[in-house]
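## retry 2 of 3
previous attempt timed out at serialization; input unchanged, resubmitting
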Amino acid sequence: MKTDPYSRMSRLGFCAFAALVCAVPTAAQEEPAFGFGPAEPASAAESPADSADSGVLSLSGEASAAFDAYTDDLDSVFAGKVRLDASGSRGEAHIGFAFTASGSASGTASGTASIAVDEGWVRAFFGKADLEAGVRKIVWGKADSEGPLDAINPVDFSDLRVTGQMDRKIARPMLRAGFSAGDFTRLEGVFVPAFVPNRFALSGRWAPAALDESFNTLFAVLQSGGQSDVAQTLSAKIASAFAPETADPKYPQYGLRLTTSFASQDIGIQYLYGNRKTPSVSVDSTKLFVAQSDPLESENPTLVFNPDALRISCDRFHQAGIDWASVVATLNIRAEAALHLTEDLFGSDGAVSNPDFAWSFGFDRDIAGFTILAQGFGSIVLMHDRIGVSPDDCQGDADATSTRILARISRSFFRGELDFSATVVSGIEDRDWMCLGEISSTRDALSIGCKGGLFGGRVDGDLGQYRGNGWVSAYLTYRF
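## retry succeeded, writing output
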């Protein structure tokens, strides 16, 4: 029997991660267990509390109230985070909760409230090694935002007013092991047992046009033709792919990352086996409609829409990546590059996305008190000439390249009490853009500020489709 080279690669990657996890207790043998010397018998007067690892417990968090104004609505939002941390010489633990309550001041939308674990994990130290388990958000790579190597956690795109990199990440259950070889070299492995894709709004002002318009139109056609049951089946299929209620354990993800520094150069290499966070959608036009015959009128079959002709999948892929950071001519430079190999190695399967090459390059520098940051990031679809037509091919409408440019300027005034920042993101191929601005005043633990965003450009672009969703927010935040 022939061995599938793609499957062989995934098995080798998993074995490498398993070896790292198994090596953690072994590495501990090089030094005293848990950082302590040999256990000594406790005296009769010593209580369990006296012999336990003394630690530090801290409570922190923040609460924020804001009013968000659109051109056609006004929202009130109350949000907060509470974090509890414990640390000692044997290990440390963290748990954080995030809660949000919002409502429309104009009464055009009903209020919502939610509370969830933002992150929660436990880490144990074994000399130069450590082992960690819990619900985490982690960052891989050196890009300021949207770097191709930062692919462990899915991202929440259901509300584009949320712009912070960590705020948009969706925490996932994972096991992480690490080993430090010296002061500048570290090997890290991550295992995520279950998969969820990026989160998108399926309706409303932040729903992607492809979902909010195309599928709604299809539902209307099916319902008008008396096929409401088919429309409901199709709706459930789309929702399960783009917003699953539970994590799917069929697709575990794992990766290895090695970072080191030498001669003012920071280098990282990594391997990741997982799923694309954005589903691929294609339609098998040959099976889009199937004939159903009435036993009494078999000569006049009726064409019925077939939901199974719609193929939605989060493609498996191997990622091999490298990143680099250094200071060159007073510029702090960061670069990333990654090759993604999907199961469509020859670009001929319309239901699976083609392999691609992704990149990021950026720098920042302080000039006259201002911090200037610029970054470009994008991807190149390999074997683009073999892509079929839409909707049979999931990339039928995709360009060969996708490029965005980000520029940000920021500065602090009055000894850090007043902060200002302005960010512009522009899509080159889509010819669209997004502008974000914020100004805030902070004294001690209290911050008051205003921020907002505008979208523009071609209406069929990823950013331009939201050009009617300009917003401004006034907020008050207290940190403790």
